Amino acid sequence: MVRVHGPAGKSVWSKRYDRIRDFEKLLVQADTRIVKFYLHISPDEQLARFKQRLEDPHRNWKIQESDYI
């Protein structure tokens, strides 16, 4: 998010990425398996999920105008 939306410069997010990589190396050294997934949903499915979130008063605060871009 930080890198995509731009509130932090490269000097900030690159340090964060380094910390994440260092942490993952520690996990691997401790014989912990790391599995990363990328969930891809269609734009129609995303809009349907946004609609459900808007209709739920406990979750509608999570929606922002930028979600629709």
Question: What keywords describe this structure?
Answer:
mainly alpha, 3 helices, 54% helix
Question: Can you describe this structure?
Answer:
Helices cover 54% and strands 0% of the residues. The protein has 69 residues and is mainly alpha-helical. It is extended. The model has no long low-confidence stretch (mean pLDDT 84).
Concise overview:
The chain has 3 helices and no strands. The protein has 69 residues and is mostly helical.
**Could you tell me the number of beta strands?**
0
Main pleated-sheet profile: none
Helix content: 40-55%
Poorly predicted tracts of residues: none
**Cα-based radius of gyration, to the nearest Å:** 17 Å
End-to-end gap:
14 Å
Q: Work out the strand percent.
A: under 5%
Give the overall form.
extended
Number of helices: 3
Determine the mean pLDDT.
Answer: 84
H and E string: HHH
Q: What layout of secondary structure does this protein have?
A:
Blueprint lengths: L1 H4 L4 H20 L13 H13 L14
